[in-house]
Amino acid sequence: MGGDFGPHVTIPAAINILKKYKNISIYLVGNETEITPLLQNTSTSIKSRYTIIPSLDDIPMDLAPALSLRNFKQSSMRMALNLVREGKAQACVSAGNTGALMVLSRHLLKVLPFVDRPALVSTLPSVTRQPVYMLDLGVNVSCDADALLQFALMGSALAEHVGNIPNPKVALLNVGQEDIKGNDLVKHAAQLLSKHHNLNYIGFIEGNDIFSGKADVIVCDGFTGNVALKTSEGVVDLVISQLTSVSNKNIFTKLLSLLVKPLIMNSLRRLKPDQYNGATLLGLPGIVIKSHGNAEQVAFEFAIEQAVKEVESGLVSKISASLDVID
User: Fold this and answer.
1) pLDDT by residue (tens digit) across 244-281?
2) Could you tell me which of 268, 113, 112, 135 has the C-alpha nearest to residue 189?
3) Is the dihedral of CA 99, 289, 135, 152 positive or negative?
4) Which of 2, 44, 82, 305 has the most other CB atoms within 10 Å of its CB?
5) What is the pLDDT at residue 277?
6) Nearest to 90 by CA among 23, 30, 3
């Protein structure tokens, strides 16, 4: 029940998901005194499908991840992850501290066989209107070629079984498309990916092609992925800011903006990566979804829906099967 807006966003989002999916139930883990008033007008049928789990602590957004292990034993995040560990829930959705979520997930749930490190993956927009899956987005700021191979296999399974993309095209993010470009890490990773018969590896891809649709899955270390993602978000913000400034320049631009600005702004906001809410921690024996901390109701609904789709697709078993063929 965390994030910037707390239960005032997460509770209505959860109720809407319960209305949309008649076969699921939801644990609402958080401050009971804040949650209960927001549920007063729910129908009897909806009330039968949610359970409030009171928590005593909230993990601060600026807390060092390691401290979340030693402290905050009764935090809503830890209690929600424990429900997954105990088999009472199949997925956890959180808008809280990303580092804490990663550390607690790995500590409580462990990792799948053949997985060294979980990876954070999210969908990005593309000019083809088909989502692009990119990982890692910041959990593993440095990693080796074997880890990138694991990321590729997990991302490919996600794109195929949740994104419904047959034989997804996998690429490595690099400073150039030629085989001679890049550091030793990406060159070694390229050799591993190209030899793996379960991957449709298409080679290197540059930053300007992230949204082109040339690749369905883009693999990189977390440092590179996070910088690329945040840069993309910043570019969209810059364009929106410039358009706003120009539209207010004089009476003629103000009149013109009344006609075209809504169309342009809507298009730009659809392209903004942070609107694709719901990043998945891949490599765990359970579904864990990280929502943007500043997600509003509709965006948080997307995050919960992502969890539902991943559970229904049997994603964990699909990933386990894909990793089982690592040589």
Assistant:
1) 777 677 676 666 666 665 656 565 555 554 456 889 99
2) 135
3) positive
4) 2
5) 82
6) 23
Greatest Cα-to-Cα distance within the chain, rounded to the nearest angstrom: 67
Determine what percent of the chain falls in helix, strand and coil, rounding each to the nearest 5: 50, 15, 35
Residue 63 to residues 92, 156, 189: CA-CA distances in angstroms? 20, 33, 34
> CA-to-CA distance for 243 and 222, rounded, in angstroms?
32
Q: What are phi and psi of 3, to 5 degrees?
A: 85, 180
* pTM listed for this prediction: 0.87
Q: Is 315 helix (H, G, I), strand (E, B) or coil?
A: helix
What 3-state DSSP class applies to 257?
Answer: helix
Query: Contact 291/146 with Cβ under 8 angstroms?
Result: no
β strands within the chain, DSSP E? 26-30, 50-54, 91-94, 119-124, 132-135, 169-173, 200-205, 217-219, 279-282, 287-290
Give pairs for 188-192: CB < 8 Å, separation 24+: 188/145, 189/145, 189/148, 189/149, 189/219, 191/145, 192/145, 192/146, 192/148, 192/149
CA distance 263 to 258: 10
Query: To which residue do tokens 């500590």 refer?
Result: 107
Q: Count of residues for the chain?
A: 327
Q: Whose CA is closest to 278, among 260, 290, 293? A: 290
- Tokens representing residue 185 in the block: 């890490």
Contacts 24+ apart (CB under 8 A), 7-12: 7/31, 7/34, 7/35, 7/38, 8/38, 9/95, 9/295, 9/296, 9/297, 9/300, 10/95, 10/300, 11/35, 11/38, 11/39, 12/38, 12/297
Sign of the alpha-carbon torsion through 6, 8, 14, 16:
negative
Question: What span, in angstroms and rounded, lies between the C-alpha atoms of 237 and 60?
Answer: 27
Name the stretches of the chain with pLDDT < 50.
Answer: 273-274
Q: Rounded to whole angstroms, how far apart are CA atoms 241 and 247?
A: 10
